[in-house]
Design a protein that fits this description.
Layout: H1 8-25, H2 29-35, H3 40-48, H4 68-80, H5 88-102, H6 105-117, E1 122-125, E2 141-145, E3 148-159, E4 166-172, E5 184-190, E6 196-201, E7 212-223, E8 227-228, H7 234-270, E9 272-273, E10 276-277, H8 282-310, H9 316-339, H10 351-360, H11 369-379
Parallel strand pairs: 1-4
Antiparallel strand pairs: 2-3, 3-7, 4-5, 5-8, 6-7, 9-10
Helix pairs in contact: 1-4, 4-7, 5-7, 7-8, 7-9, 7-10, 8-9, 9-10, 9-11
The structure holds flavin-adenine dinucleotide.
Flavin-adenine dinucleotide binds at residues 123-127, 132-133, 157-159, 204, 207, 212, 361, 364-368, 370-371, 374.
């Protein structure tokens, strides 16, 4: 269906992304999958093309265009080519907003040029071994000591944690018995700070081109100048930024489901069974017709949400609805498409297998499907 989200500027950016993905990502992707990450120099290459700094001010080497639709375009073009851009999505759509919203002038001068140039890689560390969905239950602490905060704790499942130069770490700096959401603070922990170490690189079933790490903090001395935003206000900052994080996951889900259908059409037209292309069976046609309908329904919902988000009007509950619907749709569609590949669908050399394993996490991270339902139910007064 015709979409009316994008302008000619977005479409020009789409051309740039498509060209970059085709030439610089697709040929290297199998090698990056084996290495578990995208090499640092590729981030710098993207930085030099202006792909990482669209939302950052021109005075810092960015594009000065804080328009979420550029991020959508980039994700769509990667999915279209059956790849991902490693942690770029997390960096731009999940982490950068914290810097854009909460960094003060000194922090902007210090970090923004490196972020725009792809020389500073980032991660956000909320989840801990003992708590994920219940963010207010975090146990990592930061205690004030003169001009520093002393951070102690552990984080897990941190996307890009192995490569990150700057880790936005959520720590408890105070306790309020009447409000457990108060007293969390964002501190930027830097690579090389004594006591900050990276543990295991976790072995995931999918998303092989991005690292996922355990991080440890033992008496890490973080200067007060590295606090992002107001002390004690992190929970409200997370609440403000999580809708975009959820929308972003939904963008990936819809574009990857669309790619799964394209891959299945291509495969079933060429594969023969009982002397005829698999695509000629009525079951194949009906399955793909049903999948295509699901994708278009999800796309309509998603595009509406993106438009609202661009206007600054997407509510947390609506972002939860979109994430819930689009990620569950992705799972159904990719699974049905994989079925049409028969045994080959189970082999990692076929991109449909990668789409399948990559898809599974969409219902878990950025808040599980169950947590999305909790948020939606609350908005219904339940
Ligand atoms: C690949 C990957 C990358 C990630 N990247 C990051 C990252 O960069 N930074 C970061 O901070 N975190 C990251 N995460 C963590 C992710 O956000 C959490 O895994 C997720 O929020 C769930 O938390 P949990 O794993 O502790 O599960 P739990 O909270 O222990 O949940 C276990 C089960 O209980 C259910 N449940 C929990 N609460 C409720 C409830 N109230 N009602 C009903 N059911 C409930 C859940 O839905 C789930 O089914 C990542 C995770 C993965 C897998």
């Amino acid at each position: 269906m015709r979409r009316d989200l994008f302008t000619s500027d977005h479409e020009a950016f789409r051309e740039l992304c498509r060209d970059f993905v085709t030439k610089e990502v697709v040929p290297h992707y199998p090698e990056w999958e084996k290495g578990g990450r995208m090499p640092r120099e590729v981030f710098e290459q993207m930085g030099s093309l202006g792909m990482l700094g669209m939302a950052i001010g021109e005075e810092y080497g960015g594009g000065g265009e804080p328009d979420y639709r550029y991020n959508v375009v980039m994700q769509e073009e990667a999915a279209n080519a059956l790849v991902t851009l490693s942690t770029v999505r997390t960096q731009l759509e999940v982490i950068l907003p914290y810097f854009l919203h909460y960094a003060n002038a000194e922090q902007r001068d210090r970090w923004f040029p490196g972020l725009a140039a792809g020389k500073l890689l980032t991660a956000v560390a909320m989840t801990e071994p003992g708590t994920g969905s219940d963010l207010a239950g975090m146990r990592t602490t930061a205690v004030r000591d003169g001009d520093d905060w002393i951070v102690n704790g552990a984080k897990t499942f941190i996307t890009g944690g192995m490569q990150a130069d700057l880790v936005i770490t959520v720590a408890r700096t105070a306790t309020d018995p009447d409000n457990r959401r108060k007293g969390l603070t964002l501190l930027v922990v830097e690579d090389g700070m004594p006591g900050f170490t990276r543990g295991r690189e976790l072995d995931k079933m999918g998303c092989k081109v991005q690292d996922t790490a355990e991080l440890s903090f033992v008496d890490v001395r973080v200067p007060a100048a590295n606090v992002l935003g107001e002390e004690g206000e992190a929970f409200s900052y997370l609440g403000h930024n999580l809708p975009q994080e959820r929308l972003t996951v939904a963008v990936g889900s819809v574009s990857q489901a669309r790619s799964a259908i394209a891959a299945a059409i291509d495969y079933t037209k060429n594969r023969k069974a009982f002397g005829t292309p698999v695509a000629s069976f009525q079951n194949t046609k009906f399955e793909l017709a049903a999948c295509s309908t699901e994708v278009e329904a999800a796309q309509a919902m998603l595009d509406r949400a993106i438009a609202l988000h661009v206007e600054g009007e997407l509510s947390g509950a609506d972002a939860a609805r979109v994430k819930l619907f689009c990620t569950e749709m992705q799972q159904r569609v990719v699974d049905r498409c994989l079925q049409l590949f028969g045994g080959y669908g189970y082999m990692m050399e076929y991109p449909i297998a990668r789409l399948y394993t990559d898809a599974r996490v969409a219902r878990i991270y950025a808040g599980t499907s169950e947590v999305m339902k909790v948020i939606i139910a609350k908005s219904l007064g339940l």
